[in-house]
From TrEMBL:
This is histidine kinase. Residues 498-632 form the Histidine kinase domain. Keywords: ATP-binding, Cell membrane, Kinase, Membrane, Nucleotide-binding, Phosphoprotein, Transferase, Transmembrane, Transmembrane helix, Two-component regulatory system. InterPro entries: Bact_2-comp_sensor_kinase, HAMP_dom, HATPase_C_sf, HATPase_dom, His_kinase_dom, Sig_transdc_His_kin-like_C, Sig_transdc_His_kin_internal. One of its GO terms (molecular function) is kinase activity. The chain crosses the membrane at residues 21-45, 317-342. CDD domains: HAMP. It comes from Paenibacillus filicis.
Length: 639
């Protein structure tokens, strides 16, 4: 799984990497707008839908509450009717009578107490029946209220009443409007009644019969069977036996049957009241229900959410369509704006292509002061620096070639000279001329050092050895009056230095120092020392010779400064190399490489901050200081 994710990520990165900057920016722009819009729209639509569902639940809960109150009012009316009936002592005495009453007594009962019962019945027009069923054989039946209990002995609701323990009991049943057996079956008509049944006990809990108060279901549940409901919702009642009571003429049940609603209700109802949602044939429904305690039934309303879903889908499509249209319009505008902005970047890209093809003289136009303009400016500076580095490389090669040519000019035949010197050295040793033998050894070392140019850089100790050979030879000429003192640490002896950069300075010190009258009487001391500071190494060559007058010293240092500017100019694109060796040669040594040559070589090879400075006090000393970067050659830090 992880490999698949990594592979998919690489594929996406590769595909995204192949797109142009303009396409990436537009795609990013679209995603930045589209994703938050979709998330925000989904949230708003969800919140709106939840709000609509909550509103529908509250509306139907209120509607259920209103119907429940109506039902409770009807139940209270039926209970009052029963209470008024049982409160009449004359009626109870009539049911308790243990003899055959006379016609006069029957007439008086009919005109009095029975008439009151009829008033109770007729004063509440919603009540369909008020019936008193007695098992007293002396009580006469008086239609439509007083009947023999034997007439209902086989009724189902009587059996259910007797099977439970409560004296007062509510039920819903279907039966005839009256229990007269004389009515023919073809003339009878069955109705659904909500019935209150109560046992008549008097006195001392003596069973006198049953009291029944009936109200037709379409009156009792007025809103269930009424035409006030719309086609998107319906009220229903489910009794204790899971029987349904509903308006069968409603078009609502064309899309879902009452049995299917009952099945969902049985599966999802929790507690006495609440709500739940379900779907049937792709249509969402909402059911809100409440309990009718004394009737042991549930009153529920079922609402079709099809129209709400359709409205939400229309809103969703409108939002999505508007969002897509907005994204398309903004993408077109962004594309046009990016075309203008990236036009300068395309110009810069074309210029880079020309540079890649070898054209380093490309003219980069001014591209403004923004990031693209800054990029163009940096690219111009880079081209300028590249041209400078190319010129520096050419100048370095030219200087190296000049040094090699100067050395080659002094070369006659290396093998001939080496062989000749070896022969002379052997003859001197045979003759016992050890001084001559040592001098020839030093001369051979100098020749090998001068004629062997495989590298531009050497260790400092190698240059020192070359100077020691040179002083050894020159001591023959000056009768040993040259004293070379080396003050270098082992670490600094590994310093990188340009080959033949110290010998011209020592040669210059010897040439001018030995011309002093006071030196002719004593030794010329040449001291070479070095120290490191802030990333640079300073190599100091000091002699106790004649010194240099202040004016001449200033002129020499000015020439060094001019050489520094010349080197900087050549590194910046000038052609300063052509002046080497063509200006004032007064500070050049006999070697042909001279102090100014050394200074210019150091500047060209090591850059700004490096070079040669001279200090002197006439009659006391002369001091030449070389400043170069601190690079240990044996450590691999320089090539």
């Amino acid at each position: 799984m992880r490999k698949l994710i990594v592979s998919a990520k690489r594929s996406i990165d590769g595909l995204f990497g192949q797109l142009s900057i303009q396409a990436k920016l537009i795609l990013t722009y679209v995603l930045v707008i589209l994703i938050p819009t979709i998330v925000f729209s989904s949230y708003l639509l969800g919140a709106n839908y939840r709000g609509n569902i909550t509103s529908i639940i509250n509306k139907n809960a209120y509607f259920l509450g209103t119907e429940k109150n109506n039902i409770l009012n009807n139940m209270e009316g039926m209970e009052r009717t029963a209470q008024l009936t049982l409160a009449d002592r004359d009626v109870l005495n009539y049911l308790l009578n243990n003899y055959d009453i006379s016609a006069e007594e029957l007439f008086n009962f009919n005109a009095g107490p029975y008439n009151n019962l009829q008033h109770i019945l007729y004063n509440n027009p919603n009540i369909s029946n008020l019936r008193v069923f007695t098992d007293n054989k002396f009580a006469h039946e008086i239609w439509p209220i007083i009947f023999k209990e034997s007439r209902i002995a086989g009724e189902e609701w009587v059996k259910k009443y007797k099977a439970q323990s409560e004296p007062s009991w509510w039920t819903i049943y279907t039966g005839a409007d009256h229990p007269l057996v004389t009515e023919s079956p073809e003339n009878s008509r069955n109705y659904t009644f909500v019935s209150l049944i109560q046992e008549i006990k008097y006195p001392l809990d003596r069973h006198l019969g049953l009291l029944q108060v009936n109200m037709k279901s379409d009156v009792f549940f007025s809103k269930i069977y009424g035409n006030l409901q719309d086609h998107s919702s319906q009220l229903m009642v489910i009794d204790r036996e899971s029987l349904l009571y509903y308006n069968g003429t409603s078009l609502f049940y064309e899309k879902i049957t009452p049995e299917e609603i009952k099945r969902e209700f049985m599966q999802k109802t929790r507690g006495d009241e609440g709500s739940f949602q379900f779907s049937h044939n792709g249509i969402p429904y909402l059911c809100v229900y409440t309990n009718l305690d004394r009737l042991d039934s549930h009153l529920l309303t079922v609402v079709s959410l099809e129209s709400s879903y359709n409205d939400m889908n229309k809103t969703r499509l409108a939002i999505i369509g508007s969002t897509l249209l907005l994204v398309i319009i903004l993408s077109i505008i962004t594309y046009k704006l990016l075309s203008v902005i990236l036009k300068r970047l395309h110009l810069l890209r074309e210029s880079m292509k020309k540079v890649r093809q070898g054209d380093f003289n490309v003219e980069i136009p001014h591209l403004g002061g923004d990031e693209v303009g800054e990029l163009g400016s940096q690219f111009r500076q880079m081209l300028k620096k590249m041209n400078e580095l190319i010129i520096v490389a050419v100048n370095k090669q030219a200087i190296s070639q000049e040094a090699e040519l100067n050395s080659l000019r002094n070369q006659i035949d290396a093998h001939f000279l080496y062989n000749t010197l070896e022969n002379l050295k052997m003859m001197a040793e045979i003759e016992g001329q050890l001084v001559i033998s040592d001098t020839l050894t030093s001369l051979g070392g100098m020749m090998r050092y001068n004629l062997h140019w495989t590298h531009h850089y050497v260790h400092l100790y190698e240059e020192i050895q070359h100077i020691q050979n040179y002083i050894s030879i020159m001591n023959i000429r000056y009768s040993g009056r040259l004293d070379l003192r080396i003050k270098l640490s082992e670490r600094l002896q590994q310093q990188e230095i340009l080959k033949m950069s110290l010998q011209p300075i020592v040669e210059n010190a010897l040439k001018h120092g030995m011309n002093s009258s006071r030196i002719r009487k004593r030794s010329l001391i040449i001291e070479i020392s070095a120290y490191e500071r802030e990333g640079f190494i300073y190599i100091v060559i000091r002699d106790n010779g004649a010194g240099i007058p202040d004016k001449r010293l200033q002129e020499i240092n000015d020439l060094f400064d001019q050489d520094s500017m010349t080197a900087d100019a050549s590194m910046g694109g000038g052609s300063g190399y052509e002046i080497i060796g063509k200006r004032d040669r007064s500070v050049h040594a006999g070697s042909g490489i001279g102090l100014r040559n050394v200074n210019l070589r150091i500047r060209l090879h090591y850059g700004q901050g490096s070079g040669v400075r001279m200090a002197s006090i006439e009659g006391e000393y002369t001091e030449v200081t070389i400043k170069i970067p601190y690079l240990i050659l044996s450590g691999g830090m320089a090539e």
